[in-house]
From TrEMBL:
The keyword DNA repair applies. It holds the Pfam family Mei5. This is LADA_0C08240g1_1. It comes from Lachancea dasiensis. Its main location: nucleus. The lineage of its organism: Eukaryota, Fungi, Dikarya, Ascomycota, Saccharomycotina. One of its GO terms (biological process) is reciprocal meiotic recombination.
Length: 205
C-alpha cells in the first residue's frame, strides 16, 4: 500500500527542520560558569587595586603624621630657644652691671689674667720646686752614687728650664689677651663661651 504525505505532515516536517537541536543542560552550565569566572577575575582585580590604593593611603598618612610630628618638634625647639635667649639676655645685663662696678670690661680681663698668672706660678714653679726638693732630699737619692746623683741633678735642672720656658710662653699669651681686650666690651658670644654654652645652638638659625 502506498501512503501519500498529507499537507499537515508536510507542515509538521518543515517546522521540525526549522528548529536546531539544543546544546542541552551541560552546554548551558558551561556558559554560566564562563560568565561567573570572568566576574570572579574582575572581582579579584578590583580587590588587588583596592589593596594597592589602601597601601598608598596608609603611606601618605604616615608621611603626613611624620611631617606633623616634625612641626611639633620644631615648635618645641623654637620655644626652648626663646626661653634660653631670654635667660642669656638677663645674664648679660646682670654681668654688664657687675663689670661696670669692677671698672669696666678691660679691668675684668686684667684681673682674670693676673689670677691665671698666679695659677701658673704655683703649678709650674712652686709645685715643681717642691717635687725637685722632695727627690733630692729622699733616702733613695742619698743611696745613689755621687755620679748618679750628679746626673739626676742635671735632669732636674733641665726639667726646671723646660718648665720656665713653657711658663713664659703662657704668660705672653695672657699678656696678649689683655692687650686685645683694650677698649673692648663683653659680647653675647663671649658670655656664652664663659658659661660653657653653645652660642650657635641658642642663637643660630
Amino acid at each position: 500500500m502506498v501512503y501519500s504525505i498529507t499537507p499537515i505532515e508536510r507542515s509538521t516536517n518543515k517546522v521540525a527542520k526549522g528548529f536546531r537541536k539544543p546544546g542541552g543542560f551541560t552546554g548551558f552550565c558551561r556558559q554560566g560558569l564562563g560568565q561567573e569566572g570572568i566576574t570572579e577575575r574582575r572581582r579579584a582585580d578590583e580587590i588587588r587595586a583596592l589593596k594597592k590604593e589602601s597601601a598608598s593611603i596608609e603611606s601618605a598618612i604616615k608621611v603626613l603624621n611624620k611631617h606633623e610630628k616634625e612641626q611639633e618638634v620644631q615648635l618645641l625647639i623654637d620655644k626652648w630657644k626663646a626661653i634660653c635667649q631670654g635667660a642669656m639676655a638677663f645674664l648679660m645685663n646682670s654681668t654688664l652691671l657687675k663689670i661696670g662696678k669692677m671698672g669696666g670690661y678691660e679691668e675684668l680681663v686684667k684681673k682674670e689674667v693676673e689670677a691665671e698668672k698666679r695659677k701658673f706660678e704655683y703649678q709650674f714653679s712652686d709645685q715643681l720646686e717642691n717635687e725637685i726638693d722632695g727627690i733630692l732630699e729622699s733616702d733613695d737619692f742619698k743611696m745613689l752614687s755621687e755620679y748618679d746623683q750628679e746626673d739626676l741633678r742635671r735632669q732636674m735642672e733641665l726639667k726646671r728650664e723646660e718648665s720656665k720656658a713653657f711658663q713664659q710662653r703662657e704668660l705672653e699669651k695672657l699678656d696678649a689677651k689683655t692687650t686685645s681686650c683694650a677698649e673692648g666690651e663683653l659680647t653675647m658670644e663671649e658670655l656664652a663661651k664663659r658659661l660653657k654654652v653653645d652660642y650657635n645652638l641658642i642663637f643660630g638659625e
